[in-house]
Design brief:
alpha/beta; Rossmann fold; eight-stranded mixed beta sheet; four-stranded antiparallel beta sheet; 12 strands; 25% strand; globular; binds adenosine-5'-diphosphate; binds iron/sulfur cluster; binds magnesium ion
Length: 341
């Protein structure tokens, strides 16, 4: 059953030079208990998508189109946007989201350091988050924090430590404990392991995955590292320049990759089986989204590009049930009939 549904979401930032089309027509859905990996190079709109779902977008961002529904509640869309005059909207959204944000959707950020207040003890901060949302006594909240520490593999003896007394890995675990504090239905993890060393990354990822499975929580994991997704997700969405370019079950997308950008992205990471392939990197870099390329936004970097790609934006084509690719030549690539030109 669908828990989160995003339809044709558009989020633009206003800057001096004009509008940045950070998310431009993105659609996907996540079922209860399911994990979606959202992947793509830096600057392609992953974090903006996450902030739109939690409605934590900065002031210069606006949801200019589309709809987000979570567990039957419209979080963004014309119902919300048209319900009230502009000046009352922020307050309305804030009230609506206060409960949704912690009890239903919680977020693990890129930098765990910034998630905690440096002058308060870690255990107290998690207890406070619980007390803000649940009817509990302080003692009950403390007990729950102890349980959470055990759950995420943190030493309970460190419960009264300050954030700076924790190592990077411990802080990341504490952040996961914080995210689990109010029994959410859905967790968004934005580059949850990027700041950690490789060994710690693997451990924390395994921990997140096992907790997510055990507790039946749905998850969206955001990363620029496609090998992370292969380990933890059932579904994958690949984003480029504000758009979703390929989407489907992890096996389908990995084994029958049908989009040139995804092919490039996969070739640029070592394979999960540890096969030593030479690392490839996609030439150039993602475009400035205040002035994106015409037609297919990937065309200046695409080795399959033809004339049509400069003129016409590709639609999402279903190459097999549930597996979509936004490329004019998606069927040919799927069927192995397109060589690099
Ligand atoms: N506060 C902001 N103001 C203006 N542009 C922004 C802001 N935050 C992000 N952007 C732009 O939005 C685009 C998407 O950024 P982001 O969602 O952070 O990408 P990702 O998480 O995939 O790295 C980028 O072009 C980025 O420069
Ligand atoms: S539409 Fe054209 S430019 Fe875009 S990914 Fe496909 S082949 Fe490349
Ligand atoms: Mg980001």
């Amino acid at each position: 059953m669908t828990l989160l549904e995003i339809k044709d979401l558009k989020v633009y930032f206003t800057i001096m030079r004009g509008k940045v089309q950070a998310v431009d027509g993105v659609s996907f859905a996540i079922d209860r208990g399911e994990t979606l990996g959202l992947v793509g190079e830096s600057g392609c709109g992953k974090t903006t998508t996450a902030f739109a779902i939690t409605r934590l977008l900065p002031n210069n961002a606006e949801i200019v189109g589309g709809k987000i529904t979570f567990d039957g509640i419209e979080i963004a869309g014309s119902d919300v946007e048209n319900a009230l005059p502009n000046r009352k909207k922020p307050k309305y959204v804030e009230t609506m989201m206060r409960d949704v944000r912690w009890k239903q959707i919680s977020m693990i950020f890129q930098s765990a350091m910034n998630a905690f207040n440096p002058v308060h003890r870690v255990g107290d901060q998690i207890a406070e988050a619980i007390l803000a949302h649940e009817k509990m006594t302080k003692e009950q909240a403390r007990k729950k924090v102890i349980e959470l520490f055990k759950l995420v593999g943190l030493d309970v003896g460190r419960i009264d430590g300050f954030p700076h007394e924790y190592s990077g890995g411990m802080r990341q675990r504490a952040m996961i404990a914080m995210a689990l504090a109010c029994n959410p239905k859905f967790i968004i993890a934005d580059e949850p392991t990027t700041a950690l060393d490789v060994v710690m990354q693997d451990r924390v990822l395994a921990e997140i995955k096992s907790l997510q499975r055990r507790l039946g929580i749905a998850m969206m994991i955001i990363t620029h590292d496609i090998s992370v997704v292969a380990e933890v997700a059932e579904k994958i969405g690949i984003m480029y320049a504000g758009k979703l370019v390929e989407y489907g079950d992890i096996t389908a997308v990995f084994e029958r990759t049908s989009n040139p950008y995804s092919i490039g992205l996969m070739a640029s990471f070592p394979s999960i089986e540890g096969e030593k392939k030479p690392l490839y990197s996609i030439p150039g870099s993602p475009p400035d989204l205040s002035n994106p390329p015409s037609g297919c936004r990937f065309h200046p970097r695409c080795r399959f590009a033809k004339d049509v790609c400069k003129e016409k934006e590709p639609e999402m084509l279903e190459v097999e049930p549930g597996h979509l690719s936004a490329c004019h030549f998606a069927y040919e690539i799927f069927n192995g009939r397109l060589g690099a030109g």
